[in-house]
Amino acid sequence: MAWLGSVSGLKAETLAIVAPDVFAKSAEPFGLATTSLAAGSLHDKWIGLQRRLDDDMVQLELCDGDREGCVSPAALKLLAIVDAGRQRDGRAKLGEINRAINLAIRASSDEAQYGETDVWASPLATFIRGAGDCEDYAIAKFAALRLAGIALADLRILIMRDTRGEDHAVAAARLDGRWLTLDNRRMAMVEDADIRNYRPTFVMDRDGIRRYAPGPLLAGVAAAAAEPALPAPATPAAKIAAAAVD
């Protein structure tokens, strides 16, 4: 069950020689073409996080089958959110998990928590601390959605860059052929077609990491754009760019 990874090194990664079909709409969020990352620091960090995620999923599944014997308060807290999601269907399931994880995790930078500039925590590590930044919210949602019954083929982690040059990570889930984004900055979910003022840069799932072709800012009319933002920091582009040079 290896499904996602880190986004350190967003500018200086080695790409696989895979030519995207520019004439067909991609099945990825935003319908844009992507190219696989074959190597580099981003790829390597993804492999490392993948192992920790696999370990977390084993512990979560064991606790899911034996709540009384579970010795991890963090696992039980995350599973309580999963349980609430399992009671709902469709969009309501996604919305329940998005809202609950936004409320369960306190926004905090990697520097404040770890004294480092780019740490991607596994779901249980985030719930142990009760805090994280945008990547940590996204990873926890990805795991919770999977446990709640969403197929891996319908789950992604997206990295987008805004007009200020800052990178932001969100989870994404496909429902009825449409991609919904689960953002730690808002309770309402926004469809990819309605996102504006961002440029998608990377997408991650069980199969690896792919890079979007360079393009203009998205210009959708996001109905939820006026919603007050939650106090959760994005990942500064400068931090990621610095990690890319290796």
Can you tell me about this structure?
This protein has 246 residues and is of the alpha+beta class. The chain has one domain (14-244): C8orf32 fold. It has seven helices and ten strands. It has helices spanning 41-65, 73-86, 90-104, 110-114, 123-129, 134-147, 237-244, and strands spanning 14-15, 34-39, 106-107, 131-132, 155-162, 167-175, 178-182, 190-191, 198-205, 208-212. It has an eight-stranded antiparallel beta sheet. A hairpin with a 2-residue loop joins strand 6 (167-175) and strand 7 (178-182). Helix 2 (73-86) runs antiparallel to helix 3 (90-104), helix 2 crosses helix 5 (123-129) and helix 5 crosses helix 6. The model is unreliable at 1-23 and 220-246 (pLDDT under 50).
How would you sum up this structure in a few lines?
With 246 residues, the chain is an alpha+beta fold.
Number of domains: 1
CATH topology: C8orf32 fold
C-alpha termini separation: 29 Å
Shape label: globular
Largest sheet: 8 strands, antiparallel
Please tell me the CATH architecture by its name: Roll
Compressed to H and E, one letter per element, the order equals EEHHHEHHEHEEEEEEH
Task: Give the DSSP E fraction (strand runs of 2 or more residues).
Answer: 15-25%
How many distinct helices? 7
Give me the secondary-structure category: alpha+beta
Helix proportion: 25-40%
Which whole number gives the mean pLDDT? Answer: 82
Strand order of the largest sheet: 1-2-10-9-5-6-7-8
* CATH C-level: Alpha Beta
**Number of separate strands:** 10
